[in-house]
Amino acid sequence: MARAKAEYGTHIPWIADTMGNDLKHALGDRNNSELVIGPDGKIVIARSWSEPDQLRTDLSELVGEAESLTKVSDLDRVTSKPERPKVASGVSQQVPRPAGAEPLLVTAIQSEKAEPLYLKLRVEAPAAAIRNPEKTKLHLDFSLDPIHAVHWNNLAAPLKFEIIAPDGVTVTPSSSSAAKVEEKADLDPRQFLVEIDPGESENPGPIQIRVNYFACDDGDQWCKAVTQEFVVVWKADRDAGKIPGERGEGGPGKGRPGGGKGKGVPDPDRIMSRFDTDEDGAISKEEAIGPMERRFSQMDANEDGKVTAEELKTGMPGVRR
């Protein structure tokens, strides 16, 4: 609220969700939903996908027309970002994600010393393999958290990870090190592709990933060895979001949901993984958002109020079969 007041000049109270997205989950678990709540605390208008223009119309009907409309240019915002020393980027080899990859649920384990979590881990697997555990590839992406203003120290040993899997689950390789980077320091993610085989298990247990690396402060005040640990659960993380401009194996846009010009061919498994929030094998009208919501009646061939994977294959233009 203090930052909004300073940057935007607002005087209204701001409500922020918890880091665990508790409010988002409680109110339908939609990624871009829109709710208008009355003074009595009751929801007056609910949308599964935000529509700013319609929201303005709604507010005009509910509380009256605004005397004047504020534009961004009217805010006279004064923003400043701290100057950071220039550190190289685009110098480390990146590893393509598997086609149709979706993020798995990852939890960082806080160390007893309360060491800052300089590193973020994103683990992705094909949506079909997440829904029905099978031998597949995992994409590991270790990225530095920009909030801490640190970089990789490439004069020291490169990042190394180790994976500890539950009984019956095998990971190959179970440990590896990042390739040597010629630049003294850089900001690029360290990425790996490993193969995981859940064996006979229909519900593989969590895997633990331990990573060791050297991090340096961008202001060159310190440089130290760091160890972090993560727990990865064989379940899609619906809060992880997408990576801008992300690509899968096989070329730009492969396996990305939504389809359309320049976006490749829609993948039914990935669409199901994204929208089927209760994991009952079908997408209900309440679960559909955005373009999916608008095309729902077109895809619901038997008009039972749900869209199955088979209906997706036959009812969505250009969908991968």
List the defining traits of the structure above.
single chain; 321 residues; alpha+beta; Immunoglobulin-like; eleven-stranded antiparallel sheet; two-stranded antiparallel ribbon; 15 strands; 16% helix; flat
Molecular structure report:
The protein has 321 residues and is α+β, with helices and mostly antiparallel strands. It has three domains: 2-66, no CATH class; 101-236, Immunoglobulin-like (Sandwich), CATH 2.60.40; 268-315, no CATH class. Helices cover 16% and strands 28% of the residues. The chain has eight helices and 15 strands. It has helices at 2-8, 22-26, 52-63, 127-131, 268-275, 291-294, 296-299, 309-315; strands spanning 34-37, 43-47, 101-109, 119-126, 136-144, 150-153, 160-164, 170-172, 175-177, 185-186, 190-197, 207-217, 223-236, 282-284, 306-308. The strands form three sheets. Strands 3, 4, 5, 6, 7, 8, 9, 10, 11, 12 and 13 form an eleven-stranded antiparallel β-sheet that branches. Strands 1-2 form a two-stranded antiparallel ribbon. A hairpin with a 5-residue loop joins strand 12 and strand 13 (223-236). The protein is flat and about 65 Å long. The N and C termini lie far apart (48 Å).
